[in-house]
Amino acid sequence: MPAEVCLRFLREATRIHDAGLKSYGLLVAEPGVPFRATDVVFLNVHRNRRNEPGNRAAFEAQGQYFRRHHDAGFVADPTDLLKAYRRIEASGREIVAMFHSHRRQPPNFSWIDFRLHNPAFSWHLIVSFHRGPVPQLQPFRVDKDGGELGISAYDDRQGSELAYPGPEVVPLSLLVDGAPADVHACAEALGLRAATAL
Q: Which residues of the chain form beta strands (DSSP E)?
């Protein structure tokens, strides 16, 4: 990921987190380069449909954590998502991954993340604020067929926020490159010592 994209991503995710909200969006790349995100698109956090009656019931069926925290989870507004898809398509680029924030949880790829992950994308990025104002970034490779997709109000699950243990989810390394000043600023934003790459 270019350092300037990483910085823009971290600043916006932090701003949203500081406002008490959850981030969700799309990572964009040039065609044919699925593991090099060159842009990030945040969906409108004020149009999160998570707490609409049907969606709220589905999240609450995932366990106590989701009943206790009504900001745990994100359901994209269809109109917002369609507009984003059209803008990206018109730019000649493609969506290569999704991202979302964890407001209290570590940067794990959880059971609910796996169930909600779109199998069209081979990776997913988590930005976590569980250790306070310093975010953590963790990309994951996700191999998933369409078999287990979505959540339901009829689920009776507990611990859906815990890390998914299966071999379908593998942590990846995030390489950030670009101008040394931008790489340094990105490392500082993540609470890391300056390095040439993250």
A: 24-29, 39-42, 94-102, 123-128, 136-142, 169-171
